[in-house]
Amino acid sequence: MTQSVFNFCAGPAMLPASVMAQAKQEFLDWQGQGVSVMEMSHRSAPYIEMAAQAEKDLRDLMSIPDNYKVLFLHGGGRGQFSGVPMNISAANDTADYVLSGQWSQKALEEGQKYLNTQIAADVSVVEGKVFLPTQQQLNLNPDAAFVHYCPNETIEGVEFSYIPETGDVPLVADMSSTILSRPIDVSKFGIIYAGAQKNIGPSGLSVVIVRDDLVGKARKETPAILDYELAVKHDSMYNTPPTYAWYLAGLVFKWLKAQGGLSAIEKVNQHKADTLYRFMDQSDFYRNQVDSTCRSWMNVPFQLADDALNVKFLEQSDAAGLKALKGHRIVGGMRASIYNAMPLAGVEALVSFMADFEKRYG
Question: Which residues bind pyridoxal 5'-phosphate (predicted)?
Fold first, then answer.
């Protein structure tokens, strides 16, 4: 399927073209039911079968151990900023937060409403380059209720190259922007959560992978919609779930399996990122301010040599079918988000445009 438009939006992000085509084909009549999947009961046998298959496919893709529950919930990643502390800590507990950018900062600010918090580490800037803290730089409390971090920050374009070692303290990861981009060892985490709108499906859905021993500890004031135990007991259907988003997520999981799983998609993602970074590194016209040890595979921010050219770059790239390249207002410049659904052809088209733009304005 040939694409003429490539969507580099950080989220809601593009979905695989074949998934969108299948969803379009099934939109009015899903599996011969005569109705759309979004307008049928989530408690009907066909829908429950679809939901169960989506969970199985996700478990297969991520090799999720049997002692972990998989939940499909409302609220996106932000919902779990509250959900995590309310489910696995008491008000007088302390939690460690590793800061790496805006999303880990937002998680910290929300966590401060529910328990004591400590900043275990923060980013550093050395000679204009952004660095993430190393394992040795993490100041961890062995009595903490949990350690929270964001493996990939979409705004700053930084990404941890390692999984923090936290001993017996549960490690909690906001993987909204990096889940399913490569294989990970789920057993190293107490909780993994992710808003769907980057690598899973459309916005409105969040996935929570939680170890069994962390279920059933929610505070009595925890809203029912955030209570992991209730979600487990009702197969994520304590209330009406985001049914269409769940269906689309299931299609994405099947698409990932058809690509060869996470080991295969990892190679594609690394190739895409290397292609874009390699081009920028040899150019004096474009620059990326993240140190090579912690550059994101998923979100690539960059600046032009002359900010006065930003408007021209955005206008002309949009006209060329390269959409949503404007950088976040906090960091400015440009940002190319190249999640799983972005084909290599999209990155190659971007590099070609950037090279041509540099020739004309450099």
Answer: 77-78, 103, 154, 174, 197, 239-240
